[in-house]
Design brief:
218 residues, SHC Adaptor Protein, SH3 type barrels, 4 helices, 15% helix, 31% strand, elongated
């Protein structure tokens, strides 16, 4: 008797905690943007087409957190069912996920743990409103701030500041990223700082590793 490699179980992904057979792209985004989810967490969802899957994952490394989506297609190669991502082929979705746990999936980022299923169900069952346990001001709040020191933008979408420059129409984007308009130049862009509740209530100085500003009255 000659032993050969075992035949992969084609539907084993159905038993995995990261797989969802009835989840929309928008629901995946809402869940992965929750403030308890970290960079690299992911899920895989069945798309409307039974031969296509979406791998959605959180990516924080280039600024405000975003959710990226990758298309995985079920194909037949040499009479065998395979799962294709880019130019890579895998005999099962499980092996694809295991491979990218150890190898870069996007810009050097590997996949980490899947998003918690209980958290996902809780998020998508809530009304579609913006909620974040780390929010310090409501998203509708608009601030005017003054820089306490010079800051040179590191990205094209950031605002460069000189000491005492004002930024108006400052609104929270996500976590420590805010957006506003430089009053002198009129440039719109992003600013990064880490306010806390007491600071905003006192209209005092905000000191951070990136920028120090003072909240001022409009």
């Amino acid at each position: 008797m000659k032993l050969v490699q075992p035949v992969p179980v084609p539907q084993q992904h159905l038993r995995m905690s990261w797989f969802y057979d009835n989840l929309t792209r928008d629901q995946a985004m809402r869940a992965l943007l929750h403030n308890t989810v970290i960079d690299g967490q992911f899920l895989v969802r069945q798309k409307d087409n039974e031969t296509e899957f979406g791998l959605s994952f959180r990516y924080d490394q280039d600024g405000p957190a975003v959710v990226k989506h990758a298309k995985i297609t079920q194909v037949v190669e040499d009479d065998a069912t395979m799962y294709k991502f880019g130019e890579m082929l895998f005999p099962t979705l499980v092996l694809l996920v295991e491979y990218y746990h150890k190898n870069p999936f996007y810009k050097g980022q590997t996949l980490r743990d899947p998003i918690d299923r209980a958290l996902l169900q809780r998020v998508i069952s809530q009304p579609l409103v913006e909620r974040d346990s780390e929010e310090y001001v409501d998203h509708s709040t608009v601030l005017r701030v003054q820089a306490e020191h010079k800051y040179d933008a590191e990205r094209a979408d950031e605002i460069s500041l000189n000491r005492d420059d004002f930024i108006r129409d400052v609104k929270k984007l996500q976590r420590d990223w805010w957006t506003g308009t430089h009053e002198l130049t009129g440039k719109e862009g992003n600013v990064r700082f880490h306010p806390n509740t007491k600071t905003l209530q006192r209209s005092a100085t905000i000191c951070t590793d990136r920028i120090s500003i003072r909240i001022v009255k409009n």
